[in-house]
Amino acid sequence: QVQLVESGGGLVQAGGSLRLSCAASGRTIISFAMGWFRQAPGKERQFVAAISWSGGNTYYAGSVKGRFTISRDNPKNTVDLQMNSLKPEDTAVYYCALDPFRPAQAMGITPPDGDYWGQGTQVTVSS
Questions:
Q1: What is the gyration radius of the CA atoms in the chain, in angstroms?
Q2: Rounded CA separation 77/79 (Å)
Q3: 70/59 Cα distance (integer angstroms)
């Protein structure tokens, strides 16, 4: 069983940057696609970014493309999300997820099934 723990959230002004990190424990994530999702109050969970097991392929939601960068360090069992040029509409709880069955591109279509989600980290962007 894999446990995922996010960190790095906080309060930042519009135009600022934050770097989120997801640390996995329990087993290696090297074989799996990983992704970030977010959920704002009163809204459904939304895809943000995904990365293939090797890190060679990345996918982004249109609303964050060019501002956010997903990366992974397989030896360290971590996945990061660098967020630049933050906007108030980026305010949400951000979740890390592992997809045990599908490639990274599929995360942009539907969220992964199963229990491989972190507890979330709050990101608040003030205007």
A1: 13
A2: 7
A3: 8
Asked whether the beta carbons of 93 and 121 are under 8 A apart, the reply is yes
For the chain, where are the E strands, in sequence order?
A: 3-7, 10-13, 18-25, 33-39, 46-51, 58-60, 68-73, 78-83, 92-99, 121-126
Per-residue burial over 24-62, b if 16 or more Cβ lie within 10 Å, else e, is: beeeebeebbbbbbbeeeeeebebbbbbbbeeeebbbbe
Does 14 score more than 90 pLDDT?
yes
DSSP class of residue 111? P
Would you give the distance in Å from CA 48 to the centre of its chain?
6
What per-residue confidence (pLDDT) applies to 24?
96
Give the DSSP H or E segment for 106. helix 104-107
Are 118 and 49 within 8 A, CB to CB? Answer: no
What element of type H or E holds 107? Answer: helix 104-107
Residue 112 is given by DSSP the state P
Using 50, 70 and 90 to split pLDDT, how confident is the model at 25?
Answer: very high
